[in-house]
């Protein structure tokens, strides 16, 4: 318990420092900006481990009722003021998603970008309502150039998102590996859109 609390505090301080130094507008992940036409016109959405909330802001612009959760108070404060300035309603809160994952059947859309916590996968699938969509994007182990985390625990094995989210119906998947002209197209990352089928 003590070790867990210490590592949460370490993680929080690490991200607070990064966000305090961050410049520029947060952008939604490619999986969401490319797939935003698949969003429902209304409903409840969650940007999990949202950071500065590029996904949350796009979801709010698209008409969804948005919650955004992150461990970093600095990121959450920045998102709250950015959303207010844009007159967008985003309920941004500091929340440790490992300790407090989303409740079952609570969201129509969930976005997760650059946050790989495999233990949360069953909770993410359960948190979608029937027909709900998961947008997921993060780094892969099989890199063609050096970006993203060095720690292999935070990198996806080949096709891992397909296995991880096998309970969902596959709608979109991209993972190009080192195929063809590596200067073209998205590399180093996998992206996935899955839908919970009607129950
Ligand atoms: C690489 S950033 C990605 C942020 C955002 N999703 C994006 O695409 O820019 C990883 C984020 O995970 C957050 N995080 C790490 N552990 C967390 C936890 N247990 N609960 C909630 N957020 C967490 C960090 O604070 C950080 O904002």
Topology:
Layout: H1 2-20, H2 30-35, E1 44-48, H3 54-61, E2 65-70, H4 73-85, E3 90-94, E4 107-113, H5 121-127, E5 128-139, H6 160-164, E6 169-174, E7 189-195
Bound molecules: S-adenosylmethionine.
Give a brief description.
This protein is of the alpha/beta class. The protein is built from 6 helices and 7 strands.
Q: What does this protein structure show overall?
A:
- With 199 residues, the chain is α/β, with parallel strands linked by helices.
- The protein has a single domain (2-195), classed as Rossmann fold (3-Layer(aba) Sandwich), CATH 3.40.50.150.
- Helices cover 29% and strands 24% of the residues.
- The chain is built from six helices and seven strands, in the order ααβαβαββαβαββ.
- The chain has helices spanning 2-20, 30-35, 54-61, 73-85, 121-127, 160-164, and strands at residues 44-48, 65-70, 90-94, 107-113, 128-139, 169-174, 189-195.
- A seven-stranded mixed sheet has the order 3-2-1-4-5-7-6.
- The longest helix is centred in the N-terminal third of the chain and has 19 residues, at 2-20.
- The protein is globular, with a radius of gyration of 16 Å.
- The model has no long low-confidence stretch (mean pLDDT 95).
- The site of S-adenosylmethionine (SAM) has 18 residues, from helix 1 and strand 2.
